[in-house]
Structures are given as structure tokens and as C-alpha cells.
Design goal:
Structural class: alpha+beta
Number of strands: 7
Strand content: 5-15%
Family: Belongs to the CdaR family.
Mean pLDDT: 86
Shape: rod-shaped
Organism: Microtetraspora glauca
Low-confidence stretches: 206-212
Protein name: Helix-turn-helix domain-containing protein
Order of helices and strands: HHHHHHHHHEEEEHEEHEHHHHHH
Length: 399
């Protein structure tokens, strides 16, 4: 027992001797370690300013080497490692880079200890070697504490960042954005402040239970989308880059199971609120609940109808009242025929194929509509009135 205690005391003496010398050489040691770390790891060069890096290494070495001179209960090297880990997490340095820095630090400090003892008491080198486990254990303890602190801080930041991202995205699409908010959102969402954007809105089947779920990024070829779930619908901000709207609609089509509305292109984040309103308007032009993608610029007449429901209701009553007064079956036959006529661009043959009847039947029904309404499908103004009135019947709730 006595010989073991004496050996431990001798190891402690040599370690304290070397540590005292190294504390006077801290600037040179910090220069050496920082240089090696920045040469070996691009992440440090990109994410940690040189002055910040040097100061943190200097402070960590002063605390770690100085701990050799202190009783075990007074060691402060773990607390220093935790402070550094929090800062590196905030700077976005990868945890692997942080942990590699402890390996390099161990090598630099150990080599420096050997150099001091070889210079001051070369005969004591075997004693220092027996104390190697103390050095490596201390640095391992620092690395473990740093890793745990880094992960806790990363989790804290991720939670706050996710909430901030959702809040910024909500502000953009709810038309609460000004220039400064758009600039902040661009940085937080990693999106250009100015660029070609569109907004997509899809209906959800019934009330959804995840109205505050996290933002969900997806890509469709070159198009980047950020999806946000709301109580009754899902909204996406689409960064189009150089893609055309047809490419966005084509990419969405396999994934759409409910109606969806797409806004026109807007030129920046600050315009997303307007784009969201126009996407909602496009969605309202979808009459059913099946998969349908409505691009506003292809639905402008119908959008006019749904945006002015009172006036549109008056129009449908004034134009189609005699048709609407028929019994339901007869009324639906005539309205479906008029709808097919418009969709087939006035072609009786194509409309007959769509309706599964003879072309003469289509002509007969069209003539009946003209007689009932007093409008002629040969007159452009009458065509406009009939088309808008039909949209009003199909899209507006029955009152």
C-alpha cells in the first residue's frame, strides 16, 4: 500500500511540474492546437471565427491543465467543456467536429507534457508514462460532458427553431409580413427573399387533429415545397425557381386525393399572403371532393363568381330561373348539357360523346335552354351570362 501511494504521489508531482510549465506556454499551445484543428476540419473554418476559436481553446487548456494543480473536488474542466459545447451547438458546428477536437487536444497536451518532462527531468519520463491514463481519462470526461451538453442544447434549439419556422411561415401566408419579417423568414426558412413562388392549398377530409404539426419540406424535381398543416386544410409554399406552373401541377397530381388550389406566381416572400388568398379562391372553384387541381389563372370566370356570391346568385336567378324551376331530373339534364357544351367548346358531337346521347339530342336540349332563358348561344354576351350563371349554380350553396 505504501509503495503504491508513493508511486501515485510521484506521478502527481511530475504532472504538477509539467502543468506549471505548460501554463506559461499557453499561447503557443493554443496556436498549435487551433492551427491543427482548422487545417484538418473545414467545419471549424466555416462556422467558428478564428478569434472565438483561439480564445475558447486557450481558456479550455488553461482550465484543463490548471486542473492538474487542483484537488479533484475543485476541478472546473468539465464545466468549461460544457460551456464550449453549448456555444458550438449554437454556431452549428457538427458534433463530430467537436469530439475530434478533444482527440487533437489530448495529443497536443500529452506531447507537450512529454517535452517538458524530457527537458526538466528526463529520468522521470517512465513515471509520466505511468500517469498517461490520468490525462486521457480527464480529456475523455470532458468529451463526454461536451457531447451530452451539445445534444441537449441542440434539442433545445431545434424545438425553438421549429416553432419559429412555423410562426414565420404562418405570418407569411396569413398576410402579416412586412419587409423586415420577409428578410427574417428568408434566413430562417433558407429561402430567397425574392424569387418565383406559388401557394398550394388542399382540402382535408373533415377536421384534422394535427393543426399545429411541424412544417414539412418536400421536393418535386427543381421545385421546393414547405407544407404547413392547418385544422381544415394543408398549405404549401412552393419555390418554383425556373419551373413552370404546369410542372408544379404535374408533380402534385399523383399525390392529390382531394381538391387543391394553386395561386398565380408571385415574386417574393412578402407576397405570399396575397398568393394564399388567391389559392383559396382557386380551391373554391372546385365543385366536388375528388382529386382536382385548380390553377387560378385557368378558373378566372369561376373565381369571379365565388368571390362575389351575392351578385353571382342574383345573376344565376336572372338568367337561369326558368331552368331552375323545372323538376330536379329535367333541370339536371339541361344544366349538364349546357356544361358539356361549354366544356366541348360548342361541339355537339363531342358533347354527345360526353353525355352518351345522340348529337341531335344535344341540339334539341340547347334549343330548349335558349327558349327558356331567352338567351342565344350564338351571341357572345349571352354566352358569358349563361357560363357565369352556370358556375354560380354549380359552385355556390343552394339558398
Amino acid at each position: 500500500m505504501g509503495s503504491g501511494s508513493a508511486a501515485a504521489d510521484e506521478i502527481g508531482r511530475i504532472m504538477r511540474l509539467a502543468a506549471g510549465v505548460l501554463l506559461d506556454r499557453l499561447p503557443d499551445l493554443a496556436d498549435e492546437l487551433v492551427g491543427k484543428m482548422r487545417d484538418a476540419d473545414e467545419a471549424y473554418r466555416r462556422m467558428v471565427p478564428t478569434d472565438d476559436h483561439w480564445q475558447s481553446v486557450h481558456d479550455a487548456m488553461r482550465t484543463g491543465i490548471g486542473a492538474i494543480l487542483l484537488p479533484p473536488g475543485e476541478r472546473r474542466d468539465v464545466a468549461q467543456a460544457e460551456r464550449t459545447a453549448r456555444r458550438r451547438a449554437e454556431q452549428g458546428l457538427p458534433i463530430d467536429s467537436l469530439l475530434r477536437s478533444y482527440q487533437m487536444s489530448a495529443q497536443v497536451v500529452w506531447n507537450a507534457l512529454i517535452d517538458v518532462v524530457a527537458d526538466k527531468e528526463p529520468e522521470s519520463l517512465p513515471v509520466l508514462i505511468r500517469g498517461a491514463t490520468r490525462v486521457w481519462h480527464a480529456i475523455d470526461r470532458q468529451a463526454v460532458a461536451a457531447a451530452e451538453t451539445y445534444r441537449r442544447r441542440e434539442a433545445e434549439m431545434f424545438g425553438r427553431t421549429a416553432e419559429r419556422i412555423q410562426s414565420l411561415l404562418d405570418a407569411l401566408i396569413e398576410d402579416r409580413a412586412d419587409t423586415s419579417l420577409a428578410r427574417s423568414a428568408a434566413a430562417a426558412l433558407d429561402l430567397p427573399e425574392l424569387g418565383r413562388y406559388a401557394v398550394v392549398i388542399t382540402r382535408l377530409p373533415g377536421r384534422h387533429d394535427h393543426g399545429d404539426s411541424a412544417t414539412r419540406p418536400t421536393t418535386l424535381g427543381p421545385i421546393r415545397l414547405l407544407w404547413r398543416m392547418r385544422p381544415d386544410y394543408e398549405v404549401a409554399v412552393a419555390l418554383l425557381r425556373d419551373a413552370e406552373m404546369e410542372e408544379l401541377a404535374r408533380g402534385l397530381r399523383p399525390h392529390v386525393t382531394r381538391p387543391a388550389g394553386i395561386s398565380p406566381v408571385v415574386e417574393g416572400l412578402a407576397e405570399l399572403g396575397r398568393a394564399r388568398r388567391l389559392a383559396e379562391l382557386a380551391l373554391r372553384t372546385c365543385a366536388g371532393d375528388g382529386p382536382e387541381i385548380a390553377h387560378l389563372e385557368d378558373r378566372l370566370p369561376a373565381a369571379l363568381v365565388v368571390s362575389q356570391p351575392e351578385l353571382a346568385g342574383h345573376l344565376s336567378g336572372a338568367v337561369l330561373r326558368p331552368v331552375l324551376a323545372l323538376d330536379p331530373a329535367d333541370r339536371e339534364v339541361l344544366l349538364s348539357t349546357l356544361e358539356a357544351w361549354f366544356r366541348c367548346e360548342g361541339s355537339a358531337m363531342r358533347a354527345a360523346g360526353r353525355l352518351y346521347c345522340h348529337r341531335n339530342t344535344v341540339f334539341n336540349r340547347i334549343r330548349r335552354i335558349e327558349q327558356l332563358t331567352g338567351r342565344s348561344l350564338a351571341r357572345p354576351l349571352d354566352v358569358v351570362e349563361l357560363a357565369l350563371a352556370l358556375d354560380a349554380v354549380r359552385l355556390l350553396p343552394v339558398t
